[in-house]
From TrEMBL:
<dbReference type="Pfam" id="PF09720">
    <property type="entry name" value="Unstab_antitox"/>
</dbReference>
<dbReference type="InterPro" id="IPR013406">
    <property type="entry name" value="CHP02574_addiction_mod"/>
</dbReference>
<protein>
    <recommendedName>
        <fullName>Addiction module protein</fullName>
    </recommendedName>
</protein>
Amino acid sequence: MSPTLKSLGIDQLSVTQRILLVEKIWDSIVSDEASFPLTESQTQDLQRRIAAYEASPKAGSSWEEVKARLKKSS
């Protein structure tokens, strides 16, 4: 049986504490990148995107610009 929020006591944490816990869990997953090997296709796509960024780093939009556009359209 999988652990539940209640059995782990997570339901007793504040929202802030739960968010911090999620961040720590996510960081522990990301740090174990060998557990998520990329396919050849994914590797090629990432290399293409990195090359495009390096060729023109200002070509994209910042997160702030994207958020502003999304807020305008809603």
